[in-house]
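User: Could you write out the 3D structure of this protein bound to iron/sulfur cluster? I've included everything you need below.
Assistant: Certainly. Input first, then the structure.
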Amino acid sequence: MRILLVNPPRSLKNLIREHAPPEVRPHVHHKLIGPPLPLIALAGNLAGHEVEVLDLKAEGDLRDDDHLEWESLLDESLVSFRPRVVGVTFNASEYRAGCRILRRVRESDPRIVTAAGGIHAALVPRDFDLPFVDFVFLSQAKATFRRVVEHLDDEVALWKVPNIARRTEEGLRFTPRADVFSDPGLLLEDVRPDRDLISKYREAYRLRKDTPPATYLFTSLGCEGRCTFCSIWPQARGRVFYRPVENILGELREIDQPVVRFADPDTFGDIDRAHHLFDRILAEGIRKEFVADARIDTAAHNPDLIEKAAAAGLRVVICGIESDSPEELRDFQKPYDPALVSRAVDVFHRSGISVRGNYIVQPHFTETEFRRMERFADRHRVAFAGFTVATPMPGTVFHRQVRDRITVRDLDHYNFMNAVLPTALPEKDFYERLASLWKLKRGEEVI
Ligand code: SF4
């Protein structure tokens, strides 16, 4: 069977950048770059079928065209490849674009079966109760996607596939839930992503223009944290799964890209396992540059682990630094002592690791809070700093807490670069003030 998997274009809505003074603008993050790991993970379990990946982000990046007219590329794929199934992966800010893709597919040929997956589909499946969406995938879909594809003409079997929703005349109907994390038949940890499918986009997947091509790899799924603004733990239903270290090494040995981004929220979540992972990378002589997420408290309390990871190739960490206000951290359910930030940043810097620090600016910030944030970030300047807006992503605790106060419901705005709650300062002042924070870093680079 022919299956087309589509990565939709990014939302370009970025009010921080739009309001940034000209000298600040180049410092404000523009777009997240990286391969569509969830799609190639699905494809890895589709051996025996013909699969194509259309990465509309990479198509635009290769042409250096943020406003790529992707419709003609989709049409070409539909005509030349003639898929029986088209699947799109969704996050919140790409919801509208993804829906336009599936609607166009339906209009081009009503016989094509359409499927929606990704984090937004998992957290807000009701958003996909649409006449042009046939299947919604609610969880890690490597196994269930294949089962659906292979039973498209078998109604009885389709209703037995867990963790999906189907469009019926009465609206979406859900199949029983199953725990992916404790069912090896659903998780399929040994099945590798099919990176060959996106080799034509290789040059697009660079963290910066001057760095070598990167690929993504999961070492774990889910997170032990319970941050109110986070979509990751609700998607994993609070569970965490750590891939066996030898399994990860097997995949690393097959990867030819020089840069590997661990696409986990917390590669260091289990300290003993993280020691073992980096010990084994060193022992095997695997030479890569690694990028990973790491928590402030982990680094501050485990400098030996960070040093070892650096020796094994860790070059950049992404850290949720968030805030120095104990009240804000408590509200976020992020229980670390802000005094640890400087210690953690020192640990990284001593090991030669660059830090991408993420700070959360709240719409209710006044001049006083902006000045506090400025002093905080200035005390421990990191190589790459990102100051984003607290955004109640649908499906999170934060969204439930504030949903009645949300003033912007257009999901194009839900990429952390736009306020969707009322701002205390006049809008123009809020964004200009926020944009100016982006200069508080070491050097000039942006990732
Ligand atoms: S924000 Fe990070 S640490 Fe917090 S729950 Fe999400 S992934 Fe975990």
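The pocket of iron/sulfur cluster is lined by residues 223, 225-227, 230, 232-233, 265-266, 320 (CB under 6 Å).
User: Perfect, thank you.
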